[in-house]
Amino acid sequence: EKGGYEHFMLKEIYEQPNVIKDTYRGRLLANTGIIQMSGVEDNIEKFTNADRILIVACGTSWHAGLVAEYIIEEFSRIPVEVEYASEFRYRNPIITSKDVVIAISQSGETADTLAAIKLAKEKGAFVFGVCNVVGSSISRETHAGAYTHAGPEIGVASTKAFTTQITVLTMIALRLAKVKGTLSNSDYFRYLQELEIIPEKVLEALNTNDIAKEIAEKFKDSQNCLYLGRGYNFPVALEGALKLKEISYIHAEGYPAAEMKHGPIALIDEKMPVIVIAPKQGHYDKVVSNIQEIKSRSGKIIAVVTKGDTQVKELADYVIEIPETSDALSPLITTIPLQLLSYYIAVLRGCNVDQPRNLAKSVTVE
Ligand code: M6R
């Protein structure tokens, strides 16, 4: 059942090129410029007339929501807010019938997310679900939705659910951009085509397996770890840190790279591995100066860079090369080596990768 892999987590990491394809199959027709998702189409005016989109979720699904915030605002110019479902449900949130709420959940059973949905419905909002498990409570409780089609995710650490959630949310953003005319025609087509070939790039990114293993050997005994990224890759830094803590029990924190100087830089010394997401697109020069700041404080730098990078290579202790993508779609690629890195660190530490202590696959209690 693990298909020859030692753990479900590794199998699920490796399934990503195929499941991302399953997610957009029949929905994304790049050549003709069409995106069709019935749950979106049937409610298109609710989306395009929305004052704002509010995303509620927990854990990794919340991170996918943060990535979606950047993408939806950039592509379709609709204000987006992302909130932990557990906070939203208890703070008497301001929400009206002009709001669209998107609930993201792999399992479709997360108690806090379910409660947030019920509250949003009571307040008159239109609630859209992005779930993986067909027929789950959340998929039934929402007004409409889109499944991720990632197939069963068994490993407690969420991997393929994350990338397929981002795929669905990117398609929604592109569809809304098309209707609202907020992206130029050429950008719209370029993104569609790029999304279509993302599975090939994810496949290529899986070649970082060996270097991830090598880096894991070096840092498996670390007690702390910092993850830094900017823009679209800030949520990826959060997700990288969550993945490491939940399966390897190493304390890790994700930060927007520029926030380092407001506190976390005090933690940096020769014992602190800092994983920096530094692809060529995006805020490259800014991230390079952040890397210099870490280096001058003797931090150990592990950088995720675009293939062919030379500048960061000179500064970093280790580089992990990934294929080039546009900034907006890069989280689908940058996240792959981070999943592999936490996987190998956890394996080398002898941890129960698929069923980490104290954690359940679906959190059905609050
Ligand atoms: O099933 P859900 O997506 O609603 O689950 C949300 C979180 O419990 C989940 O993402 C959790 O954080 C994972 N263990 C992260 O890998």
Automatic annotation (TrEMBL):
Enzyme class: transferase
GO biological process, one term: protein N-linked glycosylation
Subcellular location: Cytoplasm
Catalytic reaction list: D-fructose 6-phosphate + L-glutamine = D-glucosamine 6-phosphate + L-glutamate
Positions of the catalytic residues: K361
An MF annotation (GO) of this entry: carbohydrate derivative binding
Protein name stated in the entry: Glutamine--fructose-6-phosphate aminotransferase [isomerizing]
Annotated Gene Ontology cellular component terms: cytosol
Function: Catalyzes the first step in hexosamine metabolism, converting fructose-6P into glucosamine-6P using glutamine as a nitrogen source.
Keywords: Aminotransferase, Cytoplasm, Glutamine amidotransferase, Repeat, Transferase
Chief location: cytoplasm
Highest rank taxon of the organism: Bacteria
Quaternary structure annotation from Swiss-Prot or TrEMBL: Homodimer.
Gene: glmS
Annotated SIS domain residues: 43-182, 215-356
Residues of the full protein shown: 250 to 615 of 615
EC number: 2.6.1.16
